């Protein structure tokens, strides 16, 4: 039942999803403000936990946490900007600013990494093909054919291998003869796949592929919910752009790290926080509804 | 197969010279941490003209199918050898695609192989760089297809060279990724640390080219002659 609880967000139209991911990732990439990056990372992590569960997240942490500290602590070794010198290492100053900059950079990197993970889980190949099918129809066709060939060729490989084993081709052991046998299978597979797929191509042109005025069926419908979601995303993203443009979300590390002054930036933090937490909120809402309905049945 | 017209040559040089210049200029002139992401955007954009050219040419469906087969084979190859780290036939197949199907198809074979195989090996901010790197390897193989097809030794040289350049380029990306700026000390340290990986990778290119070039080339030639592609 896990997948039923956890696909509320991915039921949005592919265009809505693409607009959302691109907006969040671009803001994360181009706004170095630590608060924004922290919010983005939190949103990405919470969403990925909803999508893939806490076990997968714990596994990720074991891999990413050391990297996080590596990025943070190696930056001062290579960069000696900044006014607050902590200590000297081999006669080179290690500065607080460089350390903070490293941490900020790590926040940004892992924010983008987690959002990419979510993108990978949500934007399945059918959605991507739908998105790219309009501007790049031939490319999408090549892509979808390759996607289909991968499992097909795997199966065929096994078939050829079985046939050759039955003929006694794999009877002698040893590394070299194994390689020779594999090469023979590969050769047969390549010949078979070219012949077979060119038939597909000819049959497609015979049926009028690529002619004008041909329509194609698509599973995705743009509903009111999707349009509303796009508008909300764009409005919230626009507020972040305003914040960056007016300097409210500016932050510098060198020579001295800036200190937050007035509270004017808080509004921008809140608005971006809403944007970053939208998928998590949607998934949570869906999960709660599901639980509630379950208990009433 | 495809002739290089002056107009096309200008278009190619814009893509292949100006964009790297932009990346390098951004790296050295702008004292701005964002250029790792700017270069990421450029990597995405750089792929677009190639895709557009492919779309515009009224490509034969049969050629598209052959391209799809090569992409699938290179992705499968990356799978088949994933137990040996960094030992993969992707570059060899991409080079052969460029040789026998033309420069644009070579680029597409490289870019799509990176894109598709990362569905299984993990998508991330590095995907556009791999797409561009492998794409350009296939593209140049197509441009120099005549001498490369004639002399196996040249082909092997190109394969080893392409592998090394690809690794060095990906190391540039790693440095940008780690520091947000290009620090030469870090790059040198990284290249030295990655030397065995680069060596294995270049060697795998050579081995797979040696194994695949003749038989796969013969098969592609045969298909071309049989169906008049």
How is this structure best described in words?
Residues 1-5 of chain A have low confidence and may be disordered. Chain A starts with a helix and ends with a helix. In chain A, strands 1-2 form a two-stranded antiparallel ribbon. Chain A is built from nine helices and two strands. In chain A, β1 (85-89) and β2 form a beta hairpin. In chain A, α3 (34-78) crosses α9 (265-296). Chain A has two domains: 2-128 and 221-296, no CATH class; 136-206. Chain A has 297 residues and is mainly alpha-helical. Chain B is mostly helical and 229 residues long. Chain B has a single domain (6-227), classed as Arp2/3 complex 21 kDa subunit ARPC3, CATH 1.10.1760.20. Chain B is built from ten helices and no strands. Chain B has helices spanning 6-28, 35-56, 61-80, 90-101, 103-121, 127-143, 145-150, 152-179, 184-193, 195-227. In chain B, α8 crosses α10 (195-227). Chain B is globular. The relative contact order of chain B is 0.12. Chains A and B meet through α3, α4, α6 and α7 of A and α2, α3, α5, α8 and α10 of B.
Key phrases:
heterodimer, A: 297 residues, mainly alpha, 2 domains, two-stranded antiparallel ribbon, 9 helices, 2 strands, 74% helix, disordered N terminus, B: 229 residues, Arp2/3 complex 21 kDa subunit ARPC3, 10 helices, 83% helix
Number of domains of chain A: 2
User: How many structural domains can be distinguished in the coordinates of chain B?
Assistant: 1
Per DSSP E runs of 2 or more residues, the count of β-strands of chain A stands at: 2
Average pLDDT, all residues of chain B:
79
Helical content of chain B stands at: over 70%
CATH class value of chain B: Mainly Alpha
Task: Count up the helices of chain A.
Answer: 9
- The name of the CATH architecture of chain B is Orthogonal Bundle
Q: For the terminal residues of chain A, how far apart are their CA atoms? A: 15 Å
Mean pLDDT of chain A: 84
């Amino acid at each position: 039942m896990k997948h039923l609880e956890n696909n509320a967000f991915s039921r949005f139209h592919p265009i809505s999803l693409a607009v959302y991911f691109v907006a969040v990732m671009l803001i994360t990439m181009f706004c170095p403000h630590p608060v924004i990056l922290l919010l983005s990372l939190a949103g990405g992590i919470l969403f990925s936990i909803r999508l893939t569960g806490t076990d997968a997240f714990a596994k990720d942490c074991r891999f990413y946490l050391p990297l996080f500290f590596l990025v943070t602590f190696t930056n001062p070794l290579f960069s000696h900007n900044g006014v607050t010198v902590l200590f000297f290492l081999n006669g080179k100053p290690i500065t607080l600013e460089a350390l903070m900059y490293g941490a900020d950079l790590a926040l940004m990197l892992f924010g983008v990494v987690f959002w990419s993970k979510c993108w990978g889980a949500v934007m399945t190949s059918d959605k991507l093909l739908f998105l790219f099918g309009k501007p790049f129809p031939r490319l999408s066709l090549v892509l979808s054919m390759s996607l289909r060939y991968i499992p097909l060729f795997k199966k065929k490989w096994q078939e050829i291998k079985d046939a050759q084993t039955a003929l006694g081709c794999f009877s002698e052991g040893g590394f070299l003869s194994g390689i020779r046998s594999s090469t023979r299978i590969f050769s047969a597979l390549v010949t078979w796949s070219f012949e077979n797929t060119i038939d597909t191509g000819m049959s497609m042109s015979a049926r009028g592929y690529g002619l004008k005025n041909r329509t194609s069926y698509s599973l995705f419908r743009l509903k009111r919910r999707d349009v509303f979601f796009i508008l909300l995303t764009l409005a919230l993203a626009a507020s972040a752009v305003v914040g960056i443009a007016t300097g409210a979300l500016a932050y510098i590390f060198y020579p001295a790290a800036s200190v937050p002054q007035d509270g004017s930036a808080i509004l921008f933090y809140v608005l971006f926080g809403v944007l970053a937490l939208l998928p998590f909120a949607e998934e949570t809402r869906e999960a709660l509804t599901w639980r509630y309905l379950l208990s009433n049945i | 197969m495809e002739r290089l017209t002056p107009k096309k040559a200008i278009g190619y040089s814009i893509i292949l010279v100006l964009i790297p210049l932009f990346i390098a200029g951004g790296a050295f002139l702008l004292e701005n941490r964002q250029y790792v992401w700017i270069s990421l955007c450029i990597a995405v954009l750089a792929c677009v003209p190639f895709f557009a050219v492919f779309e515009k040419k009224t490509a034969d469906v049969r050629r598209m199918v052959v391209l799809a087969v090569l992409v699938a084979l290179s992705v499968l190859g990356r799978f088949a050898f994933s137990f040996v780290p960094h030992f993969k036939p992707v570059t060899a197949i991409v080079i052969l695609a460029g040789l026998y199907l033309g420069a644009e198809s070579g680029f597409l074979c490289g870019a799509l192989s990176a894109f598709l195989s990362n569905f299984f090996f993990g998508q991330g901010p590095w995907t556009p760089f791999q797409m561009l790197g492998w794409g350009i390897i296939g593209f140049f193989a197509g441009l120099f297809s005549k001498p490369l097809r004639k002399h196996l030794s040249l082909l092997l040289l190109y394969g080893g060279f392409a592998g090394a350049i690809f690794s060095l380029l990906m190391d540039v990306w790693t440095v940008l990724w780690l520091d947000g700026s290009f620090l030469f000390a870090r790059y040198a340290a990284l290249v030295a640390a990655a030397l065995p990986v680069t060596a294995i990778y270049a060697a795998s290119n050579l081995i797979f080219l040696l194994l695949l070039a003749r038989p796969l080339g013969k098969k592609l030639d045969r298909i071309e002659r049989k169906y008049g592609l």
